[in-house]
Specification:
- It is a single chain.
- The protein is 55% helix and 2% strand.
- With 170 residues, the chain is an all-alpha fold.
- Among the domains are: 33 residues; 60 residues, DNA polymerase, domain 1 (Orthogonal Bundle), CATH 1.10.150.320.
- A two-stranded parallel ribbon has the order 1-2.
- The protein starts with a helix and ends in a 5-residue tail after the last strand.
Amino acid sequence: MLEKLSKKIGFTQTEIKVILFIVVSFLIGIGIKTIKENSTVESKPFDYSKEDSLFNYYKKNAEQNLEKEKGKRNTEKFDSKAEVLDFESDRFAEKEKPALPAEKSIDINTADVATLVSLPGIGEITAQKMIDLRAERGKFESLDELMDVKGIGKSKFNKIKKFLYIKTTF
């Protein structure tokens, strides 16, 4: 049908499709406009007086409370230097760092969570993930397999690998 029409008019089929699209879009737009003009929806006026009175009431109370607070602040003397310099030494005491294990002292295939936690940067969750991966694979064949544990990247692996070894069984 479009071929016959394109031959009669002298347009290509693509040009006819574009023209038809424009005409259909125009007709749909006119239809929507007439529907909107004929159907008028009445909007009901909303009475905001209740909300306004609540707002004004709370605003008034807030202003009164602010004035009371300002009055309290002005009567109290505040020594900022004493407050800043009043540190409790026990709160800031340095925690003793746990001793690092000796180099090549932990067999990765037999270590438990408590032993793995002694490694730098390894917490209980990561230690458990290491044990779970070991259980899944049976045993570690290479220390590099620890890189497959979520939470152990290159830098953490480089920090802990000097403490680990794999006991070879013949």
